[in-house]
TrEMBL record:
This is Chaperone protein DnaJ. Zn(2+) 2 binds at C198, C201, C220, C223. It is found in: Cytoplasm. Transmembrane segments: none annotated. Its main location: cytoplasm. It comes from Corynebacterium poyangense. Belongs to the DnaJ family. One of its GO terms (molecular function) is ATP binding. Its cofactor is Zn(2+). Homodimer. Residues 169-246 form the CR-type domain.
Amino acid sequence: MTQQEWADKDYYADLGVSSSASEEEIKKAYRKIARANHPDANPGDKTAEERFKKAAEAYDVIGDKKKRKEYDELKAMLRSGGFGGFGRGGGSGFPGGFRTTQEGFSMEDIFGGTTGARQGGRYTSDSGFGDIFSGFFNGGSSARHSARPSRGADVETEITLDFREAAKGATITLQITGEAPCSQCHGSGSASGNPSSCAECKGSGFVSEDRGAFGFSAPCQKCGGTGQVIIDPCVHCDGSGTVRRTRSITVRIPAGVVDGQKVRLAGKGEAGPNGKPAGDLFVTVHVREDEVFTRHGDDLEVIVPVSYAELALGDTITVPTLDNPVRVKVPAGTPDGRTLRVRGRGVRRRDGSSGDLLVVVQVQVPKNLDVRATSALRTYAQAERDSGFDPRAGWAGRS
């Protein structure tokens, strides 16, 4: 598509709205055209299909606030001849923030992608500008996608920890299989360890081309945008700089990790090609339930069995923590189910502080009493009635 053809393209006209139309007006216009011209509703009608594709492309651009602003500004620039300085090292002067470099002006940052692709019986529009500039970029974004990876692949794995390991933190060793630096060429891919500068792009990784008023840059096809070429490939890794092997990685799981949380280890993923940075390792942590503790945020709850006498008369009981047991005072007259708080005995936080231990007291009723205990309890029960104590006073409307 020539510059003039691009300048003549009018997405507002394709939707039948004015350039000052509101977002709601644009949406209504697109839906109306889409319903009337959808290929599924007009099988074999090429005119309706083309109308639908043009509307989808237009809505993908002016139906998006950011793309619409860039489209309006770009059209205004084209109409006024404002791109005359691009491709010759000058600044753009364009409020949309286009990239200008010594290699030229690149519109790919804004206008990559393809439009009007048919998927699953319907048409979709991914970007809106890819087809327009495909002629300028030797096939649109294909040159960019053909560039070699700039880093290694990320790796994901899962582990399962005991409740107390997750709460206190743990150090574990994982076996990860994937791309690792070649030990023969030290990851360079070159047998001599010295990749050569690409002659095509002079080591920049980009090639530029002038097209009339436009100057464009794209990743170098010869070196894949790396700026380097391997003229003496390592026989051990075939010049890639990486080999597939199993590595042992030590992972420190921080204290307080919760079930389902991901821990990221930067640079511990697969090695990048030809000395490029490694990807990241993401470890998803699963936590087993504990028989004693239940977690509530950074607090830990523990249910402690007690006797009626301990609650009625008061006592000091021993309760477990993540570390050593602690002694907790139970005040006289404590009701069943009351929660006693022990400060700083919960889960450790990142700032070094800790949550609390919540001690819930729960009365245990004896199932079998000997004669002496039974006699003493009967005596107590009578004394309790004589004192006027009624456990159901005020309950269910009783006075």
